[in-house]
Amino acid sequence: MHVLYIVQHFASRAAPGGGIRPFETARRLVASGHRVTLLCSANSAGHMQRSDADARAAGIEVIRSPLVYRDGLSYVGRMAVFARYMRWAIPTAKAVSPPDVVFASSTPLTVGEVGRVAAGHHRVPFVFEVRDLWPEVPIVVGALPTPFLRWGARFMARRIYAAAQEVIPLSPGMARVIRDDWGVDAARITVVPNCSDTKLFGTPEVEAQREAFRARMGWQGKLVAIHPGSMGRANGLDYLLDAAKALDAAGERDVEIALVGGGPMRAALEARAKSEGIRAASFHAEMPHRDIPVWLAAADVGLVSFAPLPYLETNSANKFFDTLAAGRPVVLNYGGWMAEVIRETGTGLAADPRSPSSLAEALRMLKRDPLRRQAMGREARALAEARFDRDALVREVERVLVRAVEQAGRASLRRAAV
Fold first, then answer.
1. CATH class in words for 204-387
2. How far, in whole angstroms, is CA 214 from its chain's centroid?
3. Angle at which helices 48-57 and 21-31 pack, to 10 degrees?
4. pLDDT, tens digit (0-9, with 9 covering 90-100), for 100-124
5. DSSP one-letter code for 389
6. Is the terminal CB of the chain with fewer CB neighbours within 10 Å at N or C?
7. Same CATH fold, 204-387 and 2-195+389-417?
8. For residues 175 and 203, what is the distance between their CA atoms, to the nearest angstrom?
């Protein structure tokens, strides 16, 4: 099966950030005997050559747009890059050798439009993967400020959902929105959440580095709660700084909130922490994803934070699944399906999104009760292995793609018989 895989952002574990799902999915599809041609944009992070070399070694055919996407772009700048990528990707997708299926993975929404047009041109089925709800999320964070932009985004989404033979949302909450708000038949929807890399996180080799890493960081005797990943507006990380202030106010010197990564809000957050003298929060540089397993092994808790805005609790955050794989409790500050999962399985705690002090108290409790923390960590690892293992979930994506191709083939035979 030849899969034309359309994404905006593509990187291997050699690059920073958490957006490794396309790489990990594509290389497993190739390992299963499929051909994968992947269309993506360029970026200015300096990791493209290594990522493309990793892709070639895995047998993935990568075609990169010359258009550059940079962290720190304004909303207007991002939308301009997304639009230019779409204009480049549509003729490029039409020119590739005929695929058996077109697989477009958002965000942004414009990749879905590329997939819709490419599938129509090649007369093959179109499968649309929804990694974040667009246009819903851009609207609530203010990225589509005018009625015309919002109307255009909704018009595009309606066409994409209507054209998709199969839709793969990354959470049950996304699936509900796609079904109820966009009218997609539940039979066309298959939830495949983000994944836990159980062969990379929480291994004996990684855990063996814990104490030396903690000594190097000065973390001995502390409970360290780590937030690894993007520092964007949607992450609502002022909440974590408020929690750190609450720890300072309580005289707690043995709990540290470590923010690891980059993003458009990092400078403002770091400046605030410095100006307000927040001691319980520390900032650490963005790093390749391949280094995150050691950081989580050295930490005691994984944090997941989002702003209290509609639709954000439907997300499927990579750091949640990385924390589970690392065998560490998850503490998050919002409701939704992931909060339900950790309550049901005893793998972490959900803090009150309106009260940063509740997160501070949750961390202090985990500091005081190491046996409970360790039990949560064991349950986290077991959950990662049982429900979120990447190998198993990519096989589910593969089944959806194969089913789309088979159904299209049967439909063609029926039409030919008429």
1. alpha beta
2. 27
3. 20
4. 999 999 989 999 999 999 999 999 9
5. B
6. C
7. yes
8. 33
